[in-house]
Specification:
Chain lengths: ~250, ~220
Amino acid sequence: MKENIIEIKDVQLHYGNHHALKSINLSVSKCEILAFIGPSGCGKSSLLRCINRMNDLIDGCRVRGKVVIEGFGDIYGKGIDINNLRKNVGMVFQKPNVFPMSIFDNIAFGPRTHGIKKKKDLDPIVEDSLKKAGIWQEVKDDLKKSAISLSGGQQQRICIARALAVQPKILLMDEPTSSLDPISTAIIEDLCENLKINYTIVIVTHNMQQATRISDKTAFFLNGEILEFGETTQIFSNPKNEKCEKYITGRFG
Amino acid sequence: MLRNKFQMELDALNLELVELGVVVSNIICDSVQALEEHNLELCNGVIDIAHQTRTKIDEIEDKALKIMLMQQPVACDLRTITTALKIVTDLDRISKQAREICHIVLDLGENEHLFDIKILHTMGTLATAMVNDCVQSFVKMDLQLAEKVINQDDSMDRYFSSLKEQMLEKIKSKSENADSVLYFMMIGKYLEKIGDFAESIAQWVKYSKLGVRRGKVLKG
């Protein structure tokens, strides 16, 4: 049995008066892909953002409970270095958000922030990250080119490479392929499969087939609660919760 | 409710499968009766209907495959479609066994009396009941009836073993000519196979309802 890398304990989240997450308890094992599914506004992305404290940046957002991450303890406890947390828990967003700078500088941005300044030290990090993100062959001769000139699918892989460059343990992905074509989606799904050898991935997706294809476990959210959590094959072949079954079979949501 | 079109397609598929099940159930009954009565007219009727069911089976398979392609079903919908595809295959095989039995009856000489072999009569009656029950268990999603069919297959296997022993005795004692023994054994095997396919249908009914296949759940 795999060790847990994330333990979410009785997490409650409010946006002002809105109770967005209600007593969430969840464990995520090392080197597995966990998919969050559920209708819009049910709390998937809110919980995802709790895992690297991205909600801290939202006005009026309050989080209670514990999110225990290996090597950090409770990340909502005192004395947590947020920069170090986000170095270890990287994030990839729905729309590729490359910086308006060269491909090289995009990838080197994180390591530079953490004190690696020399080109000879940065070169292998950039190459390794681009290779892990499956885009090295496509960009190796154009590292000085602006990342903005790349296609949407390539930009998203640059974002993944940028997250990998600071050697995280966990990758959070918030609908990472929703704006991509089927080929780019397939490339990123394959990439996730390769990355899970070394990384733990939590992905929010509205694409049921994507959850089925790539995730080991699935959590079904509704109205700020997790109604069903289990192995993806079980959830998509024989869900126990009636609402989960109705959602994944397209009968509500 | 969302996905009305999908639900209507599933309901239509189910209805066609039920209709096919009733047809196959009837031809098993007829083939056993034809065997008992040496009724050549009934035999030809069974052979014709078995041939027609092939067209119906193709239609159902096409519809199920189209639903899978267009709707990409999961959970209960996936189980319904998978079960439909598996059951239609089993019904096809049952229908073929009925046809083969009738071909043998047509080949038999006037003086052959197969049902002098009492155990064949018992197997024929049991096969008819099993096919009727497995089709009904599917129509009503009746797990108790499905379980009954599954258990009856063990009885069918035991009858077939007894038939083999009896036929061996007949060969040793030379009390029956070789042709007849061969026919008895072939018919016994067809009936035993009908029992197997009925049991398979009952297992798929359980899967469709419970998501458990021969005691196992799907794992990643």
